[in-house]
Amino acid sequence: MEQLIFERATVGELAAANFRYAGVFNAFHIDFCCGGKKTVGEACATAEVPVESVIEALRVASTAAGSGASHDFQSWTAGFLADYIVNVHHRYVRESLLVLLQYSEKVARVHGGQHPEVVTIAEVFQQIMDELASHMFKEERILFPYIRALQSAAEGNMPYQRPPFGSAQNPIRMMEAEHEQVGELVRRIRELSGNFVPPAEACNSYRFLYGKLAEFEVDLHQHIHLENNILFPKSVALETSVTQPAATADVS
């Protein structure tokens, strides 16, 4: 029965329910953020890993003792979660982008002759930098302020005002599409770098670059997971409760 539950649940649902499951997916290089709507079986097939091994790791994770250091994101309000994403993940991205751009260009310049893949990595990372700068600007100036306004309206602190984009689902669809684009670019870098493993003769800058790129990928997965699998569904439900209170009451 437990195996069927794991097989049929989506990886996004599981990662949202238990932070240890997200760790399992990371270990098997399974995309639980942009690919969060896939079932475990579908995600394993995409990642070309045995589903039995993943399910066994999920089973072990489900019985692990203690709460660990993870936050209970599901219990947070949408407005508070939006603030957390900006203060933690958006800040991390901004602090990391210029450093990674600097080192990717340096490694490409010095080692690109013998390792042409690092030239492509530098080019792809420039695309990531451009995409994320625009993406975070739109979230911080358009979508997240609306989510905070929804939270205030739901709590009775201010009247609801219909946004110019009609519904939260419209910018959310755009953000999810952009998440997918950035996710593909990061996956491309993982492939080019051989899973972020530098060559044996790599210098310190080369090793730092690959280590920082691996760290950046982990943070990006958590960042997108929080938005796609927790914040966005919460925001849509919140909007429904504010704009259709009678229907929400009937359902409950």
Largest sheet: none
Secondary-structure class: mainly alpha
Distance between the termini: 29 Å
Strand content: under 5%
What does this structure look like?
With 252 residues, this protein is mainly α. The chain has 2 domains: 2-62; 76-251, no CATH class. Helix content is 74%, strand content 0%. It is built from 10 helices and no strands. It has helices at 2-8, 11-17, 19-27, 40-47, 51-62, 78-111, 117-154, 169-192, 204-243, 245-251.
What descriptive keywords fit this protein?
single chain, 252 residues, mainly alpha, 10 helices
SSE map:
Blueprint: H1 2-8, H2 11-17, H3 19-27, H4 40-47, H5 51-62, H6 78-111, H7 117-154, H8 169-192, H9 204-243, H10 245-251
What is the compact description of this entry?
The chain has 252 residues and is mainly alpha-helical. The chain contains 10 helices and no strands.
